[in-house]
């Protein structure tokens, strides 16, 4: 069974050729010798990448989309999130801990040099080494020797990193070893059954030898091995890619090139799509949420995405500790009318959550024992809350607060949730707003010393299609220094994750990850809210537009006649 | 006159220092941590965080960061953005587009504002006058983004007369719609200013004298009425040039013009202090120069005003 439900089909690809628009913008697609491919240049809405165009330096979607087109890694994901080999010939392990990776012959960089096993090992070592400051460094954490490449940080009294107490003792990861030009081995700290799934993420992309000659210049004009190469990057305006002639892999470009147009206002890109100036719109603006399916017809796309939203209940709040605390957590979860909020506030573009992951991930099941708390049940909620109060009374002036940044569209649903609490639980509830996202982050990171004295909003998107990628980073003890901002600690949960990571097959691992979720539902460190949808659109000039599990279009497939 | 200009230019130095210090202080005081924001939900590894802080001098106290910035200004090397682009390059890319847009808007609002205002003033109380006054009131009360989106949807998307967005390397035609939107509010102000002054001057003694000595109507209008009516209008245009350069964030967003407004907005949300202050500094200089030009124009328009 595929867990991926298409809410809106993409079936009808008729009559596009009569409405073809001339390709605008730069890039000489010219004489493409390969047969069966279209030659039009596809335009895509995007934001300005905030990092150099290097896989391990990029952690935001704007740059991520471009980087995915420029580089090829060991594996790639198809639209359903299923992993296929790209450069890898095989990725094998007997114990899920020592992996032997062989790569195919014949892959080339756009400067003509060969893609070798060393290109992977060197790139990973460079990204992992702390002082290089790569934003994707954390992805190498499972590999043996990672801590030695990080050094020991020093913290000031507020818990912020203030300097290095000890410099790193190693420049390279001891767990990586080049065996030959086409083979290398990876030793992990502990078994990780989903390791091959992770390798399609951009942090694991290889880099050519030329990278280390001039790192700064490289990010502006990279030498790459993916389906496309960079032709021109006019900052804040346009990025032009042309098909890579050296590329012979499974993601061969089916169009004459890609032009990423940088927009600062989503309403503007929507107007351009309607006016025929844009082929693929990555995000439908909030203002058009209720009308876009009508406006765009066959070009409208709405399907579940890998993003998940929850409210974290911080462990440091006394009223949510112990038996009474657990009852309060359950009451708060049951008093949210997810159906109604997703329908009225989000016009059906979010889907009520029934677990802590996302329906697009392989292994997802909506049927985790204990997930009844995600069903709206105001009577039960009220009686649980009252029970908790009789065991452990709250002060009369108790006000529940929900902390969120207000620079995005969070205010509306927080108010809706609060109103639900006021009506169903008969308590006082208020939103504590922060103007920008980094301010909430800052306060959350300070834990009990910060200003967060209530629930806070937590959103999460997977980097690779694996259940582990939700559960580990958000709720494991290992992530206490990272993104486990609610400071949930459970030996039972950690042991369950470990068992799943060591499972001999992915299917067994998924079963075990879902078992681990039962513990989360028992403890409720967070209250699942909803899954996000990908809401996007495309013009009539392009065909074969598919969005992947990660809400990114599979651009190499798109066809457009000239 | 030259002496006056020289003295005014010298005043730029303390204004520059004061403005940048203030700006830098304000940006510095903004709560939140830009480096934490770079990591997103996932967070950066501590070593990466330290490396980034060092690279941008964010580990230094406020005054040291400010001195680094000043050093950058005087060596034309203001450092790099978080993407690794030199800030100087960002400025060089953003300003020409915005400047072109601002000049187009100024020309539109001046030509139409003064023209309509003069005509309305001469025909005070007539139908044309009241219609124009009503319309100008409407334009002043409409927020820019409403005019922008409506014009874009109608003229751009539905009728297809003008390009919907400016995009890369915008030309005159693609900047026309944003320029009109930018000009609307100021056009209404200039119209009203001109009209009021014209109404006042048309009954002034010197106009009566001119008429009494038999001067033609056209000459009276251009040489006496209009010239004397322009002083408040010129003051307004001078200030408006600065506003148009800095305040076009909304319009630039709607029409996807890659100018100062959008760049500034993004830099603020990202917490890129150096970019914010550098762009704002250039804006401060633009303001100062525009006001200097206005002051000099006074003397041209009205010989009674002299600078020594």
Automatic annotation (TrEMBL), chain A:
GO terms under cellular component: ATP-binding cassette (ABC) transporter complex; periplasmic space
GO biological process entries: peptide transport
Domain of life where this protein originates: Bacteria
Molecular function terms from GO: peptide transmembrane transporter activity
Cleavable signal peptide: 1-23
Keyword Signal attributed: yes
SUPFAM superfamilies from the UniProt entry: Periplasmic binding protein-like II (SSF53850)
PROSITE patterns assigned: PROKAR_LIPOPROTEIN
Pfam families named in the record: SBP_bac_5
InterPro entries xref list: Peptide/Ni-bd (IPR030678), SBP_5 (IPR039424), SBP_5_dom (IPR000914)
Keywords assigned by UniProt, alphabetized: Signal
Domain (Solute-binding protein family) ranges: 83-478
Matches recorded under PANTHER family: ABC TRANSPORTER SUBSTRATE-BINDING PROTEIN, PERIPLASMIC BINDING COMPONENT OF ABC TRANSPORTER
Protein name: Oligopeptide transport system substrate-binding protein
Organism: Promicromonospora thailandica
Lineage per the UniProt record: Bacteria, Bacillati, Actinomycetota, Actinomycetes, Micrococcales
UniProtKB/TrEMBL annotation, chain B:
Membrane-spanning parts: 12-29, 99-120, 132-152, 172-191, 230-255, 275-301
Signal peptide: none
Cellular compartments annotated: Cell membrane
Location of the ABC transmembrane type-1 domain: 95-298
Keywords for this protein: Cell membrane, Membrane, Transmembrane, Transmembrane helix, Transport
Gene Ontology annotations for the cellular component aspect, listed alphabetically: plasma membrane
Keyword Transport: yes
UniProt keyword Zinc, yes or no: no
Pfam families referenced in this protein's UniProt entry, alphabetically: BPD_transp_1, BPD_transp_1_N
Single Gene Ontology BP annotation: transmembrane transport
Membrane topology (UniProt): Multi-pass membrane protein
Family: Belongs to the binding-protein-dependent transport system permease family.
Name of the molecule in the record: Oligopeptide transport system permease protein
Biological source species: Promicromonospora thailandica
Top-level taxonomy: Bacteria, Bacillati, Actinomycetota, Actinomycetes, Micrococcales
């Amino acid at each position: 069974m595929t867990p991926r439900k298409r809410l809106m089909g993409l079936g009808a690809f008729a009559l596009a050729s009569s409405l073809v628009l001339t390709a605008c913008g730069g890039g000489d697609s010219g004489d493409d010798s390969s047969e069966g491919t279209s030659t039009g240049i596809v335009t895509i809405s995007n934001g300005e990448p905030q990092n150099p165009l290097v896989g391990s330096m990029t952690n935001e979607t704007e740059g991520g989309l471009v980087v995915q087109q420029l580089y090829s890694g060991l594996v790639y994901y198809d639209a359903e999130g299923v992993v296929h080999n790209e450069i890898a010939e095989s990725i094998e392990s007997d114990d899920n801990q020592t992996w032997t990776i062989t790569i195919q012959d014949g892959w080339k960089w756009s400067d003509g040099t060969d893609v070798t096993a060393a290109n992977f090992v060197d790139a990973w070592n460079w990204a992992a080494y702390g002082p290089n400051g790569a934003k994707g460094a954390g992805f190498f954490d499972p590999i043996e020797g990672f801590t030695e490449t990080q050094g020991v940080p020093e913290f000031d009294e507020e818990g912020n990193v203030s300097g290095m107490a000890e410099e790193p003792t190693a420049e390279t990861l001891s767990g990586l070893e080049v065996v030959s030009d086409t083979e290398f081995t990876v030793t992990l700290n502990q078994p990780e059954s989903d390791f091959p799934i992770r390798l399609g993420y951009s942090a694991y992309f290889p880099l050519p030898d030329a990278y280390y000659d001039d790192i700064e210049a490289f990010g502006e004009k990279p030498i790459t091995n993916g389906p496309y190469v960079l032709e021109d990057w006019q900052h804040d305006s346009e990025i032009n890619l042309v098909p890579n002639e050296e590329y012979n892999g499974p993601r061969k470009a089916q169009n004459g090139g890609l032009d990423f147009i940088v927009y600062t206002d989503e309403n503007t890109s929507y107007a351009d799509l309607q006016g025929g100036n844009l082929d693929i719109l990555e995000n439908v603006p909030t203002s058009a949420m209720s009308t876009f399916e009508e406006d765009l017809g066959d070009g409208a796309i709405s399907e579940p995405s890998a993003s998940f939203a929850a409210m974290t209940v911080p462990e440091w709040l006394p009223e949510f500790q112990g038996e009474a605390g657990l009852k309060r957590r359950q009451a708060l979860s049951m008093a949210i009318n997810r159906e109604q909020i997703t329908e009225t506030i989000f016009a059906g573009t979010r889907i009520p959550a029934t677990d802590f992951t996302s329906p697009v991930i392989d292994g997802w099941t909506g049927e985790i024992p204990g997930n009844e708390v995600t069903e709206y049940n105001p009577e039960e909620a009220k009686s649980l809350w009252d029970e908790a109060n009789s065991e452990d009374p709250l002060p009369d002036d108790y006000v529940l607060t929900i902390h969120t940044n207000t620079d995005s569209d969070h205010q509306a649903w927080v108010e809706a949730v609060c109103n639900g609490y006021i009506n169903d639980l008969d308590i006082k509830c208020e939103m504590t707003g922060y103007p920008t996202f980094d301010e909430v982050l800052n306060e959350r990171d300070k834990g009990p010393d910060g200003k967060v004295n209530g629930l806070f909003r937590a959103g999460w998107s997977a980097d690779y299609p694996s259940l582990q990628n939700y559960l580990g980073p958000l709720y494991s003890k290992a992530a206490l220094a990272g993104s486990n901002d609610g400071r949930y600690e459970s030996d039972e949960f950690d042991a369950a994750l470990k068992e799943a990571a060591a499972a001999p097959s992915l299917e067994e691992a998924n079963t075990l990850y879902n078992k681990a979720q039962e513990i989360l539902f028992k403890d409720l460190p967070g209250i699942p809210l909803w899954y996000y949808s990908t809401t996007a659109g495309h013009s009539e000039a392009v065909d074969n537009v598919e969005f992947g599990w990660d809400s990114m279009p599979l651009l190499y497939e798109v066809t457009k006649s000239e | 006159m030259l002496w006056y200009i020289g003295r005014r230019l010298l005043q730029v130095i303390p204004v520059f220092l004061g403005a940048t210090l203030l700006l830098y202080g304000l940006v510095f005081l903004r709560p939140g941590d830009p480096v934490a924001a770079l990591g997103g939900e996932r967070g950066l590894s501590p070593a990466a965080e330290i490396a980034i802080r060092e690279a941008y001098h964010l580990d230094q106290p406020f005054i040291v960061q400010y001195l680094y910035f000043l050093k950058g200004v005087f060596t034309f090397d203001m450092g790099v953005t978080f993407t690794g682009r030199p800030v100087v390059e960002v400025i060089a890319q953003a300003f020409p587009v915005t400047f072109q847009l601002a000049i187009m808007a100024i020309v539109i609002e001046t030509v139409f504002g003064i023209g309509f205002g003069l005509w309305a003033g001469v025909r005070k109380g007539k139908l044309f006058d009241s219609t124009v006054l009503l319309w100008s009131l409407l334009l002043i009360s409409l927020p820019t983004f409403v005019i922008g989106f409506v014009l874009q949807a109608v003229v751009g998307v539905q009728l297809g007369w003008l390009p919907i967005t400016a995009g890369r390397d915008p030309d005159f035609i693609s900047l026309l719609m944003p320029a009109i939107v930018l000009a609307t509010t100021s056009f209404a102000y200039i119209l009203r200013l001109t009209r009021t002054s014209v109404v006042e001057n048309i009954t002034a003694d010197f106009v009566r004298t001119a008429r009494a000595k038999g001067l033609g109507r056209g000459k009276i209008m251009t040489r006496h009425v209009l010239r004397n009516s322009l002083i408040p209008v010129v003051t307004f245009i001078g200030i408006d040039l600065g506003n148009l350069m800095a305040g076009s964030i909304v319009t630039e967003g709607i029409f996807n013009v890659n100018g100062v407004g959008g760049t500034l907005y993004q830099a603020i949300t990202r917490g890129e202090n150096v970019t914010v202050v550098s762009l704002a500094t250039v804006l401060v200089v633009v303001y100062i120069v525009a006001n200097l030009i206005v002051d000099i124009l006074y003397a041209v328009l009205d010989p009674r005003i002299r600078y020594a």
